[in-house]
């Protein structure tokens, strides 16, 4: 959600708008377009219940702080990035048009309040619309505004891509969350015959206190039995992600749930074929047939099939070259300005 929001803000600025971001998270360096909320007494990472308590305790003070920020910056459109984590459940009454970005369909207690308080609703994919409908929400007035690629990176030419096919590692990038399925993938890498680099990142949220630490322990235990897998924590800075993915032979996205699939899109944007399961939005994003930017594997075949499919793609130069080109061209629909134009049209 954070990276997608940053990409939307970038696209809006490129279209000539001013975009500011309000956040309760501490910022590593000052940014005039990032405003720190001070009334939320919370430390990260935390779980949903802890954040909900902090919002409740802040109460009217939080409303006043948000309203004052909107006034100070003459905000015309306010986008709440999520019902809970993006403060949609405390959407303030203000002259600015209000938009809820439902990146995921979260808890009903947050979402129902948020939906009653905003004028427009946007979602990153039709997958999210379907999930909302399954939960009994009326999505007739909702719009799809996909996530965008935040940082552009040069697309390796054909000779460079062929060299990567021959010698580069398979790469995996994911958050320490059970739905990202990193331990399950690494656990099936025992028969791998090619180096694989797996980088996991902490997030500001987790399902329960200590959940990310437990997930890391499972990753490390699995990697200890896979000599070809190099595992490291700490993530990669947003600015470096496309370059890192560009230097992969293939990127595996082993997720069990993906409302959009931003890592897959970022890999495709640099011409790196993606291998993933057929879950949620990933099949639509990666594509099928001659326009596919990768290989989509039935979930029932298990994580071993992801490794096997990756090695098969790498063993077929003609297929690999075709997937690489298709991946790049599919990604062009997700440039920040394109996404920003869709957003403006949706909330106009």
Automatic annotation (TrEMBL):
| InterPro entries, sorted | Glyco_trans_1, Glyco_trans_4-like_N, Glycosyltransferase_grp1
Asked whether the keyword Glycosyltransferase is assigned, the reply is yes
Residue ranges constituting the Glycosyl transferase family domain according to the UniProt record:
172-328
- Signal peptide start and end residues: none
User: What superkingdom heads the lineage?
Assistant: Bacteria
Keyword annotations for this protein, in alphabetical order, are: Glycosyltransferase, Transferase
Q: Which residues form a coiled coil?
A: none
Q: Which Pfam families match?
A: Glyco_transf_4, Glycos_transf_1
Give the Glycosyltransferase subfamily 4-like N-terminal domain ranges. 1-149
Q: What is this protein called?
A: Glycosyltransferase family 4 protein
This protein's species is Amycolatopsis acididurans
């Amino acid at each position: 959600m954070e990276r997608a929001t940053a990409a939307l803000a970038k696209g809006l600025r490129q279209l000539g708008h001013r975009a500011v971001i309000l956040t309760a998270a501490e910022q590593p360096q000052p940014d005039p377009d990032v405003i720190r909320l001070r009334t939320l007494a919370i430390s990260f990472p935390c779980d949903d219940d802890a954040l909900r308590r902090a919002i409740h305790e802040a109460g009217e003070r939080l409303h006043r702080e948000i309203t004052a920020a909107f006034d100070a910056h003459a905000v015309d459109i306010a986008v709440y990035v999520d019902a809970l984590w993006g403060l949609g459940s405390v959407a303030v009454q203000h002259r600015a048009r209000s938009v809820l970005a439902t990146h995921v369909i979260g808890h009903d207690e947050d979402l129902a309040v948020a939906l009653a308080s905003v004028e427009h609703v946007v979602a990153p994919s039709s997958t999210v619309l379907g999930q909302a409908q399954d939960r009994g929400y009326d999505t007739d007035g909702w719009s799809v505004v996909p996530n965008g690629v935040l940082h552009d990176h040069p697309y390796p030419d054909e000779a460079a891509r062929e060299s990567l096919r021959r010698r580069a590692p398979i790469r995996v990038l994911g958050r320490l969350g059970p739905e990202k399925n990193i331990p399950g993938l690494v656990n099936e890498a025992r028969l791998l015959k090619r180096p694989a680099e797996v980088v996991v990142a902490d997030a500001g949220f987790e399902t329960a206190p200590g959940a990310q630490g437990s997930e890391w322990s499972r990753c490390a235990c699995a990697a200890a039995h896979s000599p070809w897998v190099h595992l490291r924590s700490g993530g990669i800075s947003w600015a470096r992600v496309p370059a890192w993915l560009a230097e992969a032979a293939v990127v595996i996205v082993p997720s069990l749930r993906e409302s959009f699939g931003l890592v897959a899109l970022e890999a495709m944007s640099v011409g790196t074929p993606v291998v993933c399961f057929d879950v949620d939005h990933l099949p639509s994003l990666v594509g099928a047939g001659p326009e596919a930017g990768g290989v989509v594997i039935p979930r029932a075949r298990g994580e071993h099939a992801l490794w096997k499919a990756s090695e098969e793609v790498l063993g077929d130069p003609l297929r690999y070259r075709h997937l690489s080109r298709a991946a790049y061209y599919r990604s062009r629909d997700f440039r920040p300005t394109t996404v920003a134009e869709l957003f403006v049209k949706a909330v106009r």
